[in-house]
Amino acid sequence: MSLLETLRARQRVVTPDFRNTFALESAASSLKEAFPGYDQSRTLTVEEILRRLASSIASWEWGDIRVGDVAAAIRAVFSDAVVADHAVTEFLEREVATTANPALLAPAPDAYIEAWEASSPRTVWLATIMQQRLSLLPIRWQACFRAHPEILDSAAAPTLMAARMAEQRDPYEWLLDLGVAAPHSGKLMRALHFAWLEALPEPKTQDRIEPILAWMFPANGPQLEGDLAASALERLLRPWAVANAPGDLRTYLLVRVVEAFGDPRNQRPEFWSLVSAPCKRVVIRWLAGASMDALLAIITKSTSNHMWPPRHSFWKGLYDRGLIDEAWVALSPRAYSDAMTMVAETGEEIYRMVSRQTARSRKDTCLLIVRIGRYTVLEGSHDFRVHVFQATDPHAPALYEDDYDAESLILPQHHPDARMHDPGGNWMRWVEQRVLR
């Protein structure tokens, strides 16, 4: 028997509940009573609504105008989404100023948040109307403004709200609960964002970092972007421009930042150009240490070379002393393949933040390029000599290139700016004397 035949053969279930549509019909009736003038006709664009309003005002014929159209125009015009002609704007102002229809007052809070400007006539006017006719606003806004009347302070709302927002573990969810549908949008929210960042205590611990991350990457909303994201990131990084972050905190922040905004050394320049130079340098410095550690892990996996661990210890020691500003890694073909495998196995993006080393004559060589003050240092695995260049030297390798040819970067034998890695470790003292003088 086919599936269709089986279904047809089943005994029909008859229950009066399937035909009881009273609750649905009651809800539909309630909506019609609450919002007279709304119907199921095609939704007009704001531009079409404004044209119809202009025509109706001129002729005083209102047959084509619905309450919902006027409400949409109020929100668009008073939130500065569109510019209407003077007659339409005056008409909408009179409607909002005199109406007792909740449907026409409902757009006022959203328009206030979108177009808020300290003590501007429009902001003062909207705030006054909402204060005077609070009981006609939607329930969520009545509750919000009664609990937090400072939101309607047309002069100081961001500063007053920032103090309360700074107490919240999850400020984004807190604003959602207040009734703000888009906590990252609107001029009032923008002003609140900056006031809140300044009101926060120094984010030097996990507990103080989490509210900022919850704001930047909300569970129930889109990720913060643009200059707002850049300013929030700066608030997280600012304490570490003049101090060393604890290792676990540094790793935690680095993973979250790079995952969201990419590697500032060679990714998403349109975002990282918005971040101040000192804070950007913090991330680059952290990535330098992570890149050196990644290179050790990759070389350990790719080769049985016993010479790299002591070299890593030397360079990481200089890093821990705060002497290395930047670092970049170029991998041999085999090491590059192993690095991609490590990305898949661990999920750690640092193994992907590398370049390729392409020299055929040195196909096993991996390179480490570091910047120490005014010097660029080129280090390599196996029997590669360490090279020290003035950063302004045209022969010095640039950081963050896609490919490097190790053979083309090698200085001639006995060149004073290159040194073999001798077993006694004299090369380390040579490097320090060159770059720390």
Layout: helices, strands, pairs:
Blueprint: H1 3-9, H2 22-34, H3 46-59, H4 67-78, H5 86-98, H6 102-105, H7 108-115, H8 121-132, H9 139-147, H10 157-165, H11 171-178, H12 187-199, H13 206-216, H14 226-237, H15 247-261, H16 269-272, H17 277-302, H18 308-320, E1 326-331, H19 333-346, E2 355-357, E3 367-372, E4 375-380, E5 386-390, E6 403-404, H20 406-409, E7 418-419, H21 426-435
Parallel strand pairs: 1-2, 2-6
Antiparallel strand pairs: 1-3, 3-4, 4-5, 5-7
Helix pairs in contact: 3-4, 4-5, 4-7, 7-8, 10-12, 12-14, 17-18, 17-19
List its traits.
alpha/beta, seven-stranded mixed β-sheet, elongated, 437 residues
Structural class: alpha/beta
* Total beta-strand segments: 7
Q: Helix and strand succession?
A: HHHHHHHHHHHHHHHHHHEHEEEEEHEH
Q: Given the structure, what is the number of helices?
A: 21
Strand content: 5-15%
- Radius of gyration from the alpha-carbon trace, in angstroms: 32 Å
> What topology, given as strand order, has the largest sheet?
6-2-1-3-4-5-7
Distance between the termini: 91 Å
Question: What is the mean predicted local confidence, pLDDT?
Answer: 91
Helix content: 40-55%
The best one-word shape is elongated
Q: Uncertain segments of ≥5 residues (pLDDT<50)? A: 13-18
Largest sheet: 7 strands, mixed
